[in-house]
Amino acid sequence: MRQCDYSRTSVAPRLPAVSPPTGTGSALIHRAGSQAVAEVHLTNPAQPGMHYDVGLIQAPRPATASCGPGAPGTAFASLDLDEGGTGTVTVQDSVRQGTTGVWVIVERPNPNSQDPAEFYTSEFLVSM
Fold first, then answer.
1. Which among 91, 119, 105 is positioned nearest to 35, based on CA atoms?
2. What residue spans carry the Polar residues bias annotation (predicted)?
3. Is the whole-model pTM more than 0.85?
4. Which of 53, 69, 77, 96 has the maximum number of C-beta atoms within 10 A of its C-beta?
5. What single-letter DSSP state applies at residue 7?
C-alpha cells in the first residue's frame, strides 16, 4: 500500500480473511513514445459488476501532492467487472518532464466514506 509520493503507508486497512482469495489483478506498464501506458486486469468472480477507479501515477511527486483524479501527473479510468467478475482497462498519459517512473492504483469507492472501500497499488515503480 502506497501514498501519493510512493512511500509506504503507515497503516494498512484491516480486511476479513477470505480463504481461498476471491480475486486477482495484474498491470502491464510500458512507454509508447511520449505516453506511459498501463493495461490493468482484475478478476473477482465473487463481485460481478463491481466498479473500480484505476489511476496511472507519475513519480517523483512531493509527499504533499495529491494523486486523485485531476491531480497533475495522474490519469484515471473506470473499470467495471463483467457478469463473470473480470475486467480490463487501459490508462495512458503523456509523460511529464522530470518523470522517472510510474505506478498504478486501483480503488473501489466507498459510498459511506471518502476513504476507498478497498485499494491496491503497484509493488514497484516502472522506470520511464
1. 91
2. 1-10
3. yes
4. 53
5. P
